[in-house]
Give the backbone structure.
Amino acid sequence: MACPVNHTVELNPALLPLDWLLGTWESDEPGEGCFPTIKPFRYTEKLNFSHVGQPVINFTFNAFHAESKKPLHRECGFIRMQPGSNRVAFIIAQNSGLVEIEEGELTAQQLNLQSQALARTSFAREPHVQKISRVFQLRPDGRLEQTVSMATDNQALMQHLHIIYSRSS
């Protein structure tokens, strides 16, 4: 059961620098995923960033196969800002069994994040993810762009995902 979200609650002032993220975003065109150990793929994705008045943004990311529409990757978590700074932290749980903390900086309307801590289930599929970096950028045309790079046990850090979204609400 989903927790009710009161959209009339005022945004916590600590989150004002991130207010441009709030709402629901959906991919216009399918995004592209690739990595040396998997076949290239195309996906659609819906992002939701919300708040309940706390100094935290709640988020869900739901990806679907572009052709079959089958559910793929899921992420949910929280975004926090260090008071009095441009430091941002994403706390993320993934349906693959990976949990991560990404930290980075907010510069204007761009977030640059790098994994600081990764944990996984004891039976996670190998090769294991060892590092993730993520960039969110609000483009001049009002669309949101996300690029995710990843390193595993046997692959150096390289681009894994790229997608562009439009605000749907």
Remarks:
- The chain is about 0% helix and 60% strand.
- The longest strand covers residues 38-50.
- The CA atoms of residues 7 and 43 lie 29 Å apart.
- The radius of gyration is 16 Å.
